[in-house]
Each structure stands twice: as structure tokens, then as C-alpha cells.
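Example (one chain per record):
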Amino acid sequence: MIPISDDDLYLEAYDYQLPTERIAQNPVTPRDHSRLLVVNSPDTHEHQRFWQLPDWLNPGDLLVLNDTRVLPARLYGYKPSGAKVEVLLLEERQQGQWLALVKPGKRLKPGAEIYFDSPEARDSRAKFWAQVLSLDEATGGRLLQFHCPAGATVLEMLERYGEVPFPPYVTESQASSSQYQTVYAREAGSAAAPTAGLHFTPELLQRLDEQGVCREFVTLHVGVGTFRPVETSDIRDHVMHQEWVKVPEVTVEAVRRTRSQGGRVIAVGTTAVRSLESAGQGQPPGHLVPFAGKTDLFIYPGYRWQVVDGLITNFHLPKSSLMMMVSALLGRERLLRLYEEAIAQNYRFFSFGDAMLITPEARLR
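Predicted structure:
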């Protein structure tokens, strides 16, 4: 196990001060013109643009990307009294039943009804509504049973009534919902985008193909597990909420082939990391098996890496589990120094912000 300090295990050690103006409200256009902080050795780093990514990858390297697609998961409805309600769907538990965050939560107890149609449609067969089944202590959310018009599905009704939810710190954006999807998104199911992938354009992917950089996909539907705050002073006491993951056989074979040929496995985003490392649990180092199911894997300093060699990621919220994951790869103190420099250099932070590449040569050993 990589040596760690006592501070690495405590929440306050992952705090930093971010000026509000450094929180990106809109994405860069074109996508690949965002900035890229390349951490290329244990002691050095360089300031680049994302379109220069091919300069840092080798033929035979493997990029693993998360192909999840963000649902139009934010709904606005009302109670029978007419009081307004906001619903953010997190994950489907079973057919027609979804875990959701609701506002105002305290007034929506089990049995409460939420309507999404106009009041005139409330008593018709065409109505779209939900009933609160239970509270969810782990998330503070509600389990909702949805009722759709005959022949319709919840996903179809979301396309009609829902909005793609931007993160709560994006408050003044002019971005379109399509700008909050990766260009390769295909598996609908996320409440938020895997934001490291937002920097790729079709043209950049084509350049990487021509260079001989391989590409495969995993699916992790981003839910509350990725963004839930760490609230325990000792981070080892934090419990991750489960998220659904699929690592297909084709991706497993690509990792094996890359390893056998001396290539490097580069995860695009922390969700791709969680997917690959979940499929490697219980396996010899460097190996993984096809996996489909829930994961609650929490990666923090001291973690023994199974699959991932390098990482492309954005700049994350203070004291978040995502910062802890990146610290496990790079080192907490160095990560905080890089964040400090990125702030001084006017990098843009969080979902619509700039990116960082941690090469395999730079990671902790």
C-alpha cells in the first residue's frame, strides 16, 4: 500500500479556497479548446489546451470513457393543494419506481401525490403523476412511484416534461442541454454528466483514432454517490451510495490486450475509474472481469490500484470524494498545490471548467 499521512484521512485536509468567479458557468466552444493541466512527472507539469491531448498519448494506449447519457431528470410539479414541487430523479429502483430528491422535502411524506400535468388533466387518463412511497435515509430523498398515461413509460414522459439538470453551482448559464452531454453519450440513466468527457469533439476522437490510441466504453449512471458530500471527519467512515455500473467483455479484453502490448490504460473521468476499479476488485493486480451491478467503491489515499494507469479529470469541489480519489493517484499535497496554481492561472473549475491529465509517469508509486 502507498504510504499516507494522518492528514490524508481527515476531511478538512481536502479543503481549499476557490473564488466564486473561477466556477465555470458556461462551457468553452469548441469543447476541446478548454485548458489542460498536464501532470507529466513526479515533479513537473505543463499548461496546454485539451486539443493537444494526442501529444501526451501513445499508439496502443487505451482510453476508457463513460457512455452514460444524462436524463432530463428534473421535473417541476405541484401538490393537490397547488403548492409547487421540484423533483430530481437519481436512479430507477424498479420499473416505475425512482429514487429522487424533492423540494420542499419536509412536506412530502409517504402518501403525498405530485402532479406534473396541468390541473385540468389531473383527473383524466392522460395524467402523469407520482406518489411518495417512502423516505430514503441514506440520501435524504424519496422513493416515488410514477403513474403514466396508458402505453407510456417514465423515460418517455421525462422527454416531454423533464429538463436536463445542471449542477447547483451553475446558476448563470446560457449552455444548452446538449452541451451537458458527451458527444458519445448513448446509455440513458444519469442525473449528471461525466464531465471529463465533455471536452472531446468528434474531430479530436478521430485524431486519436488515426494516432492509434484505442477507445472503449464503460457505463456508470451518475447519481448521488458521485456528488454526495463527505460529512465524516475521518474519511474512512464515509459510505458511498451505490451507483449502477457496467464493464462489458469488449472493454475487459481491450484492457488485457493493452496490458499485453505495453500500452497504458487512461480513464476519462472519475466515473470511468470507479467502473474499472470495481471490475478489478478481488482480482490479481492489473486484471479485471466483466461486471454489471451496483458499486459503492470509495477510493482515497492508500488505495491499491488494480487497473487504471492515468486519468483525465476536471477540477473538483473542496472536500469531495472526487478529490480524495484523485489524491489516491497523485498525492493530496501535490493535488492541492496544483489546484492553487490553477486558481492563480485563472483555470475554470467544476463541471463546465477545464481539465487535468495525470499521466502514468506522474502517479504515486
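Caption: The chain has seven helices and 17 strands.
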